[in-house]
Amino acid sequence: MAFRHLLGLQELPKEDIQNILKLAVTFKDLILKPVKKVPTLKGKTVANFFFEPSTRTKTSFEIAAKRLSADVLNLSISTSSVVKGETLLDTLKTIEAMQVDIVVIRHSVSGVPFMLSQKIKSVVVNAGDGMHEHPTQGLLDLFTIMDKKGKIEGQTVALVGDIAHSRVARSNIFGLIKMGAKVRVVGPATLIPRDVQKMGVEVFTDLESGLKGVDVINILRMQLERQKKYLFPTIREYAMLFGVNSKKLKWAKPDCLVIHPGPMNRGIEVSPNVADGPQSAIEEQVTNGVAVRMAVLYLMGGGKANEVTD
Amino acid sequence: MKLLIKNGFVVDPANGREEKCDVLVADGKISKVAKNITEAGAKIIDASGCIVVPGFIDMHVHFREPGFEYKETIETGSRAAARGGFTTVACMPNTDPALDNQAMVEFVNMKSKQVGLIDVKAIGAITKGRLGQELAPIGELFKAGAVAISDDGSTVMNAEIIRRALQYSKMFNITLIEHCEDVNLASDANANEGYNATVLGLKGIPAAAEEVIAARDIIIARETGGRLHLAHLSTAGSVELLKWGKKMGVNVTAEVTPHHFTLDDSCLKGYDTNFKMNPPLRSKEDVAALKKALKDGVIDVIATDHAPHAELDKDVEWNQAAYGIVGLETAFPLIINGLVKPGVLTISQAIAKITINPAKILNLDRGTLSEGAPADIVIADTEKMVDINKEFFAGQSTNSPFIGMKLFGSVETVMKNGRIIYGAKN
Question: Does B271 contact A170 at a Cβ distance shorter than 8 Å?
């Protein structure tokens, strides 16, 4: 790996992404077997620090670490510990002093994993920071596309929904473009961040033209409280204009793959028949997530890419 | 006690002087500026290779006293000012309690005298408690010695209050300084809205947040005739509005900070909270527009917005980190490097923006080397490089994004009322 830490897909070189995806194939085979455990991270300690509520990502990291035989520490910390006077750095330095090898961190403020990587000795893995990046989600989305479509290069992928507040969108944009895909962002004008086209994406505010001819739709979760910030008028109108149902799915290519980082608002951004339909890989993404996170932890823990795959 | 500054290059924009000559100081005042002065018994200061200029004036600092003494005090702030060549500063009223009454202004003036390094002036609040609800006693503030009024840190969002404040302050010929930031547009954002904020996942403050207030206040100043000064302008659009106001004959002036003409929002890449300010660092195009406005004289003043913060305010998550940086110690080298060396401003234009121009806005009898004026003098070497490191700073806080830089422009000797308060060159 080019870097000690995994902070985002923006700085992760293409070769590292390829290595992770390749290794994840091996780990996916492993976790579908009756005995799902390997001793590769035996004696290493992984700490999951979640400063924001999360079930899916936290569990996924925990299972990934346990299947690699690491000791796992799970901490869900409400931001109220800041109120108690202990700073974030104090909290993490305390844990670091207990000789944790890998710190997996989720935080509501963009840049926190980067800041920590500058200040602590442990390896830092970003499990989602504010509106910035969610690199392991980006990697598992890449893995799912590769798995289902055979390759990433040349695919046209539409990211649909709240692009502005989405760390999943940013990691997808960086990862997909690096791997040779074409990326579109589709959503209400109020939720398209300024100058996003300079990241190399095409911008659509009309779902029909945005979906026309795409190979993959990645539907983002709509945070319902955004409505209070004047970003869209009603949930009903959002579902009408940007919700993906089976009728609208026909605007894309017939074999278009549907993915979603979860948790879903069924009936809002995605209709149940699309979420559970034949083109959806939403459930499989969860399995892929464990495999990808195993690959990440394995490499961040000092493993070499060819030791497992060769 | 007489002092004779020999062989320096005197730059005194107020008097149109720019030549090699000597300056004689007697009894704390400038007694003579001429070539080849000889004066028996005077202590000689050799200023060969240096410029000799009026003491700098910073019309926008935060000395944090009372209320936030762990960040800065009037004493430590005075030291930072002297280190940077500033002999007069004006403190913003966002202290706790706010400088919104006579007693608070008198407190600042008393502390300033006790410390006895530089002149620390107070800017009174526009509204009581800086809450934007009711007018502060502007007449009382003025009589106690406030040099301007401002709610800096907050914008007075109620346009009617600004209209009345501009009408009322006219009676005392005192300037109203606006912090231009529409709170609804800026919301809880903390970076410039644009490509860099998008990539970094930071919530952006649109340029419109500044510009709608600048436009509003210029329009109100046009109607009322009050004296309006726009603090720390940061966008190209604000410059256009200011140009329009000046063309229409509005009584409006404006300032820019050294960080806004030096840095842009690409600096935010490493989430270093020393790049977090309000207004935020803007785009490269905005920086270019600010420089052009300085050159064209549209922007009158360079002010530092000196905003000291302790480490515990800055060494935290980006969203929680305090806004602002210290500016007094680094202002002169940043002006020399960023504006004078590249030819954006002549040395005389640059010095005017930190001496006579702010003096006029604040009605101060400072900022010149006129004979009879108080001997506030800076001797500086524009060819000498300085290392910006933690030791370079003389104030209590060192929250500066410029640490690690090497810059041209060294303040060598600073004199306040004829007394040397920093350095000494013999």
Answer: no
CATH 3.40.720.10 holds for B2-52+374-423:
no
Q: Give the Cα-Cα-Cα angle A139, A144, A145 (nearest 5 degrees).
A: 100
Domains of chain A: 14-133+286-305 (3.40.50.1370), 135-282 (3.40.50.1370)
State the count of interchain CB pairs (< 8 A) between A and B: 68
CA atoms within 13 A on the CB side of B176: 34
| Residues B206, B338 contacting (CB under 8 angstroms) | no
Q: pLDDT digits over A86-98, tens only? A: 788 888 888 788 8
User: Among this protein's residues, is B58 annotated catalytic?
Assistant: no
Provide the token pair at B46. 């050799």
Inter-chain residue contact B317 with A199, CB threshold 8 Å: no
By C-alpha distance, the chain A residue nearest B268 is: A111
Chain B neighbors of A86, CB-CB under 8 A: none
A192-to-A222, B130, B280 alpha-carbon distances in Å: 13, 36, 21
The domain B56-361 is classified under which CATH number: 1.10.760.10, 3.40.50.300, 3.20.20.140, 3.20.20.210?
3.20.20.140
Q: Model-level pTM?
A: 0.95
Q: Which of B22, B300, B305, B313 is catalytic?
A: B305
Domain parsing of chain B, residue ranges: 2-52+374-423, 56-361
Q: What DSSP element (H or E) covers B419?
A: strand B419-423
**CA B243 to CA B246: how far, in whole Å?**
5
Contact B315 A129 (CB under 8 A): no
ipTM metric: 0.93
Q: Summarize pLDDT for B398-411 with one digit per residue, the tens.
A: 999 999 999 999 99
Of B195, B312, B316, nearest to A198 by CB-CB distance is B195
Contact between chains at B316 and A131 (C-beta distance less than 8 A):
no
CB-based contact A310:A165 (threshold 8 Å): no
